[in-house]
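[SOLVED] Predicted holo structure with zinc ion

Edit: marking solved, answer below. Original request kept for reference. I posted the sequence and ligand SMILES and asked for the 3D complex as structure tokens.
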Amino acid sequence: MELPANEEQDVLYWGGGHPPGIYTVKTGYAFLMNNFLQQDVFSDTNFFRILWKLNIPPKWSLFLWKLVMNGLVVKSNLVKRGIDIDVYCDSCGMAEEDQQHLFRMCSFGRYAWANCSLNISSEIDESTPFGHWIQNYILLFHSEDGKRSERVGTFIGVLWSILLTRNGRIFSNQGGCLTDLFRNYNTAMQQLSVWQRVGEGVGVNGKVSADSGAPPSFERVNIGCKREDINHPTNARLEVTIMADGSWLKRNRMAGTGWAYSEDQISYMEGGGTYGKAHSSLHAEVMACVAALKWAEVKGY
Ligand SMILES: [Zn+2]
């Protein structure tokens, strides 16, 4: 231990405060709270371990991570970075737009939570930091429903649609009204459903359900009629059925497309075909559909 050069009296020094060295109840409380939050590290670790394994699109995982880390570009965070903007919420104008307000406390956000299937009163327990609030719900749903929890999907879908509605209001001159919220929510849940189905292999090459009667990668698209099954004809008034298919050679990226059509659902006649370059087999399939639709339009179907 180094000895002081001059003879001095020892003094009490408090290292957790500002100005340095002086103890106050406030800084003591902050010190204790900090210790308390550090004890919560296990919970955080647990959450992040689960986060990356959730059955949701990667962009949703990243979104959730940003929310928990308070890293979203909301107005209060922009002001903290020195950007001179009006920090008030564009929806209600009653408070600063930080994550807690935008997603929980704003009347718009509260409405979204109260009217989703989860029926959450987001304004209760305002003292809970936003990041913890999110973690609590995700951990709860995950522990009760497992990793395929529908409630986790709904929860993130509401968060996502609140953000999209707010972005539309600010950047795209949209009204940011409840209609926009519901539209964004429905789109988000549809995208989630498609993503999860692809993850399960439904509709992907070789895993089309065995009873569909269609070969792998052959998709039936029906336009203008709700029910139609070639094996179980209905009395729907179908004018024409077109079957289109594409093929693709990875080596030289050449693609070929062709389609056939039927006016009586029994006999099929040659429709047409094209060829060209494609980036993938899926691209070739889409080319076939587009070419067939263009052909149908010219034919007047
Ligand atoms: Zn607001």
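OP edit: Residues 89, 91-92, 94-95, 101, 106 surround zinc ion (CB under 6 Å). Thanks to everyone who chimed in.
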